[in-house]
Amino acid sequence: MEKDKGRLIDPVTGLPVELLPFEEIEKEELIVKVKMDLRKSKKVTIVEGLSYSDEEMRNLLKEMKRRLSCGGTFKDGVILLQGDHRKEVKRILKERGIPEERIEVL
User: Are 77 and 89 in contact (CB under 8 A)?
Assistant: First the structure.
């Protein structure tokens, strides 16, 4: 990155870094997988492929647990929810701005 009058310039595009929509590009490129698995003979919804920070993951998990009335956790960038909530999770992710074609429900 180069500096131009105190602003960071992207060497590839030549534009100021603050004008580049990196977050939007990231949302468009990621593939989020939502699947159901059995663990100890109980259903668990697994959400993987999100590239959020720990704080954003905590907030998303908190929202999902509240809206779905279930327990859950996240580890290593993967959200685990108690129960089969695949359709509802897809709807929540769409509301968060992730395009429907980038959400893969298995």
Answer: no
Residue 41: give its domain's CATH number.
3.30.780.10
pLDDT in tens, 2-35: 455 566 666 666 666 666 665 555 555 678 999 9
Total domains in the chain come to 2
Task: Please list the residues that pair with 43 across neighbouring strands.
Answer: 38
Residues 6+ apart with CB under 8 A from 54: none
pTM (2 decimals)? 0.72
Q: Tell me which residue range forms the domain holding 67.
A: 31-105
Query: Of 24, 51, 46, nearest to 33 (Cα)?
Result: 46
Alpha-carbon gap, residue 84 to 37, rounded angstroms? 8
- Per residue in 41-56, pLDDT (tens digit) is 999 999 999 888 889 9
**CB neighbourhood size of 92 (10 A):** 18
Would strands 78-82 and 72-75 be described as parallel, antiparallel, or unpaired? antiparallel
